[in-house]
Structure formats: C-alpha cells, structure tokens
Write a structure and sequence with these properties.
Elements lengths: L10 H13 L4 H14 L5 H15 L7 H9 L1
Amino acid sequence: MAQIIVRKIEKKVVDRLKQRARSNGRSLEAEVRTILSETASKPQIDWEAARKRVEAMHEMLKGRDLPPSIDLIREERE
C-alpha cells in the first residue's frame, strides 16, 4: 500500500476529523482512510453534460404554461 503525507492542515479541520472519527468508532488515520476511499470510489460528475441536459429540458419546456411549483407541492400534500 502507498502512503500519503499531507502537511499544513488547519487545526479546525483536524479537530473535526478527530470528532468524526470518534463518533464512528475509528482512529483518525482509519477515518481519513475511509473518507479518501469513499471519495475516490465515487464517479466524477460531468458538469458539462449535466448543464447540457438542463438546457435541453429548458428548451423542451419552453413556451409551456406550467403552474407554479408551490401549487403542485400543496396539491401533493393534500
């Protein structure tokens, strides 16, 4: 396994990591390892593709007379 050394981490960040480690029943090292593993295993978000999808949806809905979303939410609650 490889090792990584990270320098100049703010004290408040380290304190929050220690608190998080305690609440998860892990050592600080194990908590940081878990955070890195979980983060590295998540797929990268393709923001450009997401933006294009939103623009396509805007174009698709263009010109439609849609009710205010607050009305739809109230309807669902009732």
